[in-house]
Automatic annotation (TrEMBL):
The lineage of its organism: Bacteria, Pseudomonadati, Pseudomonadota, Betaproteobacteria, Candidatus Kinetoplastidibacterium. Gene3D superfamilies: Vaccinia Virus protein VP39 (3.40.50.150). It catalyses: cytidine(967) in 16S rRNA + S-adenosyl-L-methionine = 5-methylcytidine(967) in 16S rRNA + S-adenosyl-L-homocysteine + H(+). The keyword RNA-binding applies. This is 16S rRNA (cytosine(967)-C(5))-methyltransferase. The gene is rsmB_2. It comes from Candidatus Kinetoplastidibacterium kentomonadis.
Length: 442
């Protein structure tokens, strides 16, 4: 469902900004995620920009398929992006059988009018405002015909790139449709309670007093049922909780962490798992990440949760594969290796991921993962454990990656582990992850 402001004022600006975001994702493959861009947008338009942008990403396959029928050749990529956004907004008029609200969010006249205004407000699309008007009105007149033409298109039906769909079909022949459909839903908001500061009873009381509907998942996790910006939730500034998917919360609990242990959190930013490790026990922790910007966010999270102490927390910006640049030679008791991945398990949270990735990217990602865990293994003491973690549902990044690692490391033993977790539970169930616990033989 699309959020609508009280008036249609400045809708064309939101359409224009959404088109720019889409253009950056499709043509510039910007690594800055959609959520990060939206966080930096103007507060007064952020809710509607967030809603429309995410809706576009979740319906882009349909729009791309329809657009190729309506316009054989786009005058430029900026026009194409604007046209795709406009088509998705028109799709929002259709009755949604999963929604209790059957009324259109914006009427067709408003969408066409504001889309044309957006075109006229940017020099690269201004000359083609007439083409945009004609194409949109053609679709509105004949939408049933056009929808019938694309009914057999996998990309139009499931709203993923075709290569992505075929990969899921190949690996999960019995439930591929459920995986694709559930991952294309709105993500649930889970909070992990900071056990160093509070407890579940206080959190329940705090949220009830503020009329916020929650569901208790366990003693340290709750699900927020209201649609509220996290910064407006009680306890944020006080560091009483942190946003973390319920399946991501499994990582720290899979390791037998005791006080005094020397632990490495590799690829640590933005710090969800880092903070969890520090909440569980009094440890020496090294948080390693290659991104300076993401480490700034990690430090902010540590400080907000009151978990940052220079004596026991060491934040290092370096390439995990370059040991000479960061490792002091002291072996780790435990390593959490949350390696870079395709993000195929967290499409709910980051619906732009599927459109940024190409099939050729997967092989590069797999090689990066292999280099990281091969290097980190050298820093683990005999008898120590490494938790290999990804937020992917592609087996090449999970089970197959670990099988290859075990073949090449005779001193490694796979312990009982969750393995592949698919995002096919009810919408409160969380995202897709892979976990493997590896023991280094003495």
């Amino acid at each position: 469902m699309i959020y609508k402001d009280k008036t249609n004022k400045d809708l064309y600006i939101v359409i224009q900004l959404t088109a720019k975001l889409l253009h950056d994702i499709l043509y510039k493959k910007k690594t800055l995620t959609l959520s990060q861009v939206l966080d930096n947008s103007l507060p007064d338009i952020r809710p509607v920009l967030h809603s429309i942008s995410y809706y576009v990403m979740r319906n882009l396959g349909w729009a791309r398929t329809i657009s190729k029928i309506l316009i054989k050749k786009f005058p430029n990529s900026e026009f194409e992006s604007l046209f795709l956004v406009s088509l998705c907004l028109i799709k929002s008029i259709f009755k949604n059988e999963n929604s209790s609200n059957k009324d259109p969010i914006y009427n067709d006249y408003t969408i066409v009018d504001q889309s044309i205004l957006a075109a006229k407000s940017y020099y690269k699309t201004f000359p083609y405002a007439g083409l945009l008007n004609a194409a949109l009105r053609n679709f509105l007149r004949n939408m049933h015909k056009f929808n019938a033409l694309v009914k057999n298109s996998l990309e139009a039906k499931f709203n993923y790139p075709e290569w992505w769909i075929k990969k899921i079909m190949y690996y999960y022949p019995n439930n591929w449709q459920k995986i694709l459909s559930s991952a294309n839903c709105i993500s649930p908001l889970h909070l992990r309670i900071n056990r160093r500061k509070t407890n579940i009873n206080f959190i329940v009381k705090l949220f009830n007093e503020n009329n916020i509907d929650i569901k208790v998942i366990n003693d340290f996790s709750v699900l927020i049922k209201n649609s509220i910006p996290i910064y407006n939730l009680p306890g944020f500034n006080e560091g009483l909780w942190i946003v973390q998917d319920i399946k991501a919360q499994m990582a720290a609990k899979l390791l037998d962490i005791d006080d005094g242990m020397n632990i490495l959190d590799a690829c640590a930013a933005p710090g969800g798992k880092t903070t969890h490790l520090l909440e569980i026990a009094n440890i020496q922790l090294t948080a390693l990440d290659i991104s300076k910007k993401r480490l700034i966010k990690l430090k902010e999270n540590l400080e907000r949760l009151n978990l940052y102490n220079k004596k026991n927390v060491h934040i290092i910006c370096a390439d995990a594969c370059d040991l000479s640049n960061w490792w002091d030679g002291k072996y780790y008791d435990i390593i959490l290796s949350d390696v870079p991945c395709s993000g195929s398990g967290v499409v709910r949270n980051h619906p732009d991921i599927r459109w940024m990735k190409k099939i050729d990217d997967i092989n590069i990602i797999i090689e990066t993962q292999r280099n990281i865990i091969n290097t980190l293994w050298k820093t683990l003491k005999p008898g120590g454990k490494m938790l290999y973690s990804t937020c992917s549902i592609f087996p090449e990044e999970g089970e197959l990656q670990i099988l290859e690692f075990l073949r090449s490391h005779l001193d490694a033993k796979l312990l009982p582990s969750p393995g592949q977790i698919l995002p096919i539970e009810n919408l409160e169930g969380g995202n897709g992850f892979f976990y493997a616990i590896l023991l280094k033989n003495k």
